[in-house]
Design a protein that fits this description.
Two copies of one chain form a homodimer. By secondary structure, chain A is an alpha/beta fold. Helices cover 32% and strands 30% of the residues of chain A. In chain A, the strands form three sheets. A six-stranded mixed beta sheet of chain A has the order 6-7-8-3-9-10, sandwiched between helices. Chain A has a four-stranded antiparallel beta sheet with strand order 2-1-4-5, with helices on one face. A four-stranded antiparallel beta sheet of chain A has the order 12-13-11-14. Chain A is globular. The termini of chain A are far apart. At the A-B interface, helix 6, helix 7 and helix 10 of A face helix 6, helix 7 and helix 10 of B. Chains A, B: Keywords: ATP-binding, Nucleotide-binding. Chains A, B: GO terms for molecular function: ATP binding; ATP hydrolysis activity.
Chain lengths: 288, 288
Amino acid sequence: MKGIQIQGVEKSFSKRKILQELDFTFEAHKIYGLLGRNGAGKSTLLNIITDRIFATSGQVIVDGEVAKNNDAALSKIYLSSEMNAYPASIRLEKIFKMTELFYGDFDYTLANNLAKQFDLDLQQKFGKLSTGYRNIFKFIVALGVPAEYIFLDEPTLGLDANHRDLLYQSLSTSYIERPRTFVIATHLIGEVASLLERVVVIDQGQVIINGDLEDVLEQSYLISGPEKEVSEYTKNLNVIGKERLGKISSYYVYGKLDDECFLPDVVTIEHLDLQQLFIHLTNPRKEQ
Amino acid sequence: MKGIQIQGVEKSFSKRKILQELDFTFEAHKIYGLLGRNGAGKSTLLNIITDRIFATSGQVIVDGEVAKNNDAALSKIYLSSEMNAYPASIRLEKIFKMTELFYGDFDYTLANNLAKQFDLDLQQKFGKLSTGYRNIFKFIVALGVPAEYIFLDEPTLGLDANHRDLLYQSLSTSYIERPRTFVIATHLIGEVASLLERVVVIDQGQVIINGDLEDVLEQSYLISGPEKEVSEYTKNLNVIGKERLGKISSYYVYGKLDDECFLPDVVTIEHLDLQQLFIHLTNPRKEQ
């Protein structure tokens, strides 16, 4: 079976549970958004999947094989993160070659082409790059490796809007030319949303959403109107947040609406975008 | 006259011109977006305005007075940026008091309230904060000072979507309660846009846009259709970018449309959002 299965994965540091029994699958040939607040456990999960740190319990299965200590399985996975630091004195071109030694056939044509588009001189040494260009370079390496599962942890850190736009376009083009799995962990939810097919939301070490982006957005609602009518209409719904502006109350809802329930004229229903949904799902509940 | 006037400001490092004769005004009681690519000169400009570095020529006038070496004028300006580093061992509460010594009346009520909302413990030492919380703390300090002109250089660096949302809301609320000038330099153009009244775009050391956001967006167009019709319709317009997808050409235009020109049915016109406009205005022109 193709895909990466996370089976009962838990992780504790000291006595704190960082990840609590995660069970889900990254399916093959999809673009995923992996979303979570700072400290939610995203990076820990990525490091467990790529065998950089051990899970306290549970296991990761890659295309049917246990990944732990399994070089063949692990070579199918590539993680690009803050932790990929290369020696400062090495030229970028050389790093492509080093990467090929570990991961096999490197796509030099794609990498050279991307370097040109991003205006990145490959004769430079890694240590000379700005934060933005370091991340651009790591992204180019990630697209060049032949791995089937590419994890990108905050790939747009330090990039200006133009370079972020080019990065999203390049990822999309490369995915169409060679379908594989991308998992993008990012805080810039609004602008990455249009790239994603599936979305996994981690909150306090648990997966609280795992679904097709379209289905997820389909059941995300902003319901507004006078407090009395809105609270009546939403009384059996999954309300994830509330706001009030003057006489208008806005309730954020995730889940199915109640078709039986009468909708008064003064109440309006809109859909949320992914970033709004995420914020309301993961905000700590306050007493209303 | 209220406001900050930038008069003929130039800056060179070695022989490279970073800023080329800037002439414009930050008006009082407005929220500005200061937008530019990495390396465009934004931070250099902010450092000149706050007298942290010298201009090669030109001057900065604050409410009618030359700012250089003028403590009274400079105390009206507050810049929050990467450069505000506090000693690691100082508690956050203490930093409020230190700030008050320099800038006068500090708004402790607002600052304590914001700290609570952001879940930031003010008994902590500065050195213990994560990147995100460092920037949250600096933002709280910036809102607490009584200065009339607040410059925020990338205030959302390291913040997750929830905290960015809360930051934008807090800024907006504080601005309504005590109108003053905010200048926000940021790469997250899409999500900051709804806060802004005015926008200044710097490209390669020059101001290429300075206007009301509404007016700027009003003259930003995406014109799409078959290549022949689109290129004919736009031939006298200010085309800032072109894209092609299959048989459809999309031209990005900034400026007035030609009312005399016949618009064929097959050509559609939409408005751009600020981030799209920015990207196309500041992308290096390629041969088409």
